[in-house]
Amino acid sequence: MAADAAHTPSEGRTDGERELARLFALQKEAYAAAPFPSYEERIANLNRIIRLTEANEDAFIEAINADFGNRARQETVIAEIVVTVSGAKLTKKNLKKWMQPRGAPTPLHMLPARSRIEPQPLGVVGIISPWNYPLQLALAPAIAALAAGNRVLIKPSELTPHLAETLKAAIASEFDESVCAVVTGGVETGQAFTETPFDHLLFTGSTAVGKRVAEAAAKNLTPVTLELGGKSPAIIDESADIETAARSIAHGKMLNAGQTCVAPDYVLAPRDKVDATVDAIAAAARKMFPAIDTTHDYTSIISDRHFARLKSLVEEARDRGAKIVEIGSSNALYPQRKLPLTMIVDPPADAAVMKEEIFGPVLPVLPIGSTDEAIAYVNKGDRPLALYWYGESDAARDKVLEKTVSGGVTVNDALWHVAQENLPFGGVGKSGIGAYHGETGFNTFSHLKPVFYQSRFASSALLHPPYTAKTDKIISFVRKIL
Length: 482
Ligand code: NAD
What we know:
The chain is α/β, with parallel strands linked by helices. The protein has helices at residues 15-33, 39-55, 57-68, 73-99, 136-147, 161-174, 187-195, 207-219, 242-254, 274-288, 304-319, 371-380, 394-403, 416-419, 438-444, 469-481; strands at 102-104, 114-121, 124-128, 151-155, 180-182, 200-204, 224-227, 233-236, 266-270, 323-327, 341-345, 362-368, 386-390, 408-411, 432-433, 446-453.
């Protein structure tokens, strides 16, 4: 089957757009010729991902470091290399089971038929990845899509050009481009990508761009998974040990300098413990990063634009009278774009820092009177991508879990639910649509096709017209046994 010519950007204006159209047509044709890769072929593709990730580890570390200005090597190893390889290995271990047809019980009145759900590849999958974890967020969805038997095109962010080129070369060294390839280019290529009639499109990025992606994909009725952002709260309960919570929050907020979709965006602390919380977070931050200007451990802000945006969030809150607590040397600011952890104590409710996703090491700390107040505060805003709760009271924890809706939750730590590959990862409401990781990822990129195997002893013909008194008798019998 050829690509849908009416919707394919065949007359792309830029090199990126032309390359996209060529690769998409090629993959569509390859899919039509071989729509159901075997278990062995899929395992071989997962091995290719593992090999290219491990073989290019140093090149990826260097490329990401160049893109950020400074990115801690260990952060790249943990959050890009290890996470990707462990996701691929877990997928390999489970793939045979996931590929199996799944039984579905057949109701009594339909016996002796059998029913099954048979996973089937969708075809050609598009992946648009952001700059913040540019390797992991390109390869983790690719792992799921390839495991499900699809062909994959990846469009990395233009803000990480070194990584994009390194990834493109690494993928080309292992994969035939009819199976998996990278398309690079700017926003025009991104737009053309979203207008391409993929069989599924996974986008990771901001909520604002996510809306445009969904709009463009809707024109082709391309199903989308949108992995977006939002304001993820960290709630410290009365029953929490403040030092333990503070260490976790400081780490969650300073990893990758807060440029993490699931970083704690703000803290809700018991009213009488706000000062103790701020002091404990400051102490934890100083211990992890005693000198942010000289250490390679602390990651830079990705661009001057994002740096200026974060500074202006702080300045607006300062101008409006909020207390600002900056942890680290202001010598660090330029040229490395290292922004110290900056806490904003009790900013006005309508300050910009409380209205938009922060996505950097700026941390509002708000006093809260009770668990109910914390729940009400969270529920006033859009549904967050992540929620963190710290404490020892099971009753307070369960109340928060029951009465708030967020993409995912880690209790008594930050970030870790994302690394647990057997848990689905995704947002809800404005923080995203759909999910992946582990079996959920396999299902996302599969058509779970219901198949009803009728029996040759079936009596369904008894319900065919012409309708008679006998038909009515059969209907009333069936209604009795339902
Ligand atoms: P972004 O939305 O600016 O860009 C994401 C990708 O979309 C990039 O590849 C970019 O080139 C492309 N793009 C930009 N404009 C486009 C358009 N009009 N049409 C098609 N593609 C376009 O996001 P970002 O700044 O790269 O990443 C930060 C955001 O991503 C934050 O909001 C963060 O929370 C979110 N994020 C979410 C997750 C998650 O898994 N839920 C993970 C990481 C980041």
